[in-house]
Write a structure and sequence with these properties.
Length: about 180
């Protein structure tokens, strides 16, 4: 693996713009989550409201595709987090080793959940048939409604990707801190 490059901060105006766009994307994800929670108050399985409806983008894109709310939320959360982290990673001053270990462990757990959900989702579909968007995890007794597999799979992959991104990004922060500390000696 190639060594991590030191952190280069974005120019101040671009860094602010990047941070603002990232925050707007994160707010957009929260608005979509709240909108569907209010407009579709009941569901058979947790997360189903985010996979059984669609968001139609403006013309001409809507002629080609539509998006499920969970897909848009996933894109917005990943891009928003990445932009905010990129905008402010030059300002991170705390030790990152423990945090890197935590996010790497979380990425392992999320990858495991993603793979388990994929196998369970498609095994259930092959066994029972039906609409892929309506299949939920009914393998366990739940206090709460079972979780929709489509929703859970996308969210677990989001957590996996975010954890790896944060792990890599914090590694470059750590490398920059070592370079700065080495220059002082």
């Amino acid at each position: 693996m190639e060594p991590l490059a030191p952190v280069k901060s974005l120019p101040k105006s671009l860094g602010k713009l990047t941070g603002i766009v990232g925050i707007l994307l994160l707010l957009g994800a929260l608005i979509i989550i709240a909108y569907y929670a209010v407009n579709i108050p009941t569901e058979q399985a947790f997360g189903e409201r985010y996979v059984t409806t669609t968001i139609s983008p403006p013309y001409p894109i809507n002629e080609v595709t539509t998006f499920k709310p969970v897909t848009v939320v996933t894109y917005f959360l990943f891009c928003g987090t990445a932009l905010v982290l990129e905008a402010y990673k030059g300002h991170i001053r705390f030790g990152t080793r423990v945090l890197r270990a935590i996010v790497l462990t979380a990425s392992f757990a999320a990858a495991y959940e993603f793979l388990w959900n994929m196998f369970a989702w498609f095994t259930t579909w092959l066994k029972n048939g039906g609409d892929l968007d309506l299949i939920s995890n009914n393998f366990h007794n739940h206090v709460f409604p079972p979780v929709n597999f489509n929703f859970a799979t996308k969210i677990s992959f989001l957590v996996f990707a975010l954890c790896l991104y944060v792990w890599r990004s914090l590694g470059s922060v750590e490398a920059a801190q070592r370079t700065r500390n080495h220059g002082r000696e």
